[in-house]
Amino acid sequence: MKQRQGGFTLVELMVAMAIGTVIILGLVNFLTTFQTFQTVDKVSRKQETLILR
Q1: What is the pLDDT of residues 6-50, one digit of tens each?
Q2: Where do transmembrane segments lie in this chain (predicted)?
């Protein structure tokens, strides 16, 4: 009787890498959007301050 080796198949590793890549890209997109929002908010506040003076 052959011993069955434990581990992952190539297909399982490829699927896990694809899922991980999608998650990482989603987080990067979210963080970039959040930083852009903060930058636009700061500029808007500065413009508002200049207009009110």
Answers
A1: 889 999 999 999 999 999 999 999 999 999 999 999 999 999 988
A2: 7-31
User: Rounded CA gap, 49 and 16, in Å?
Assistant: 50
Q: What is the pTM of this model?
A: 0.66
Query: Coil, helix or strand for 9?
Result: coil
Structure tokens at 20: 């991980």
Whole-angstrom CA distances from 21 to 9, 14, 32 are 18, 10, 16
- Rg of the chain (C-alpha set): 24
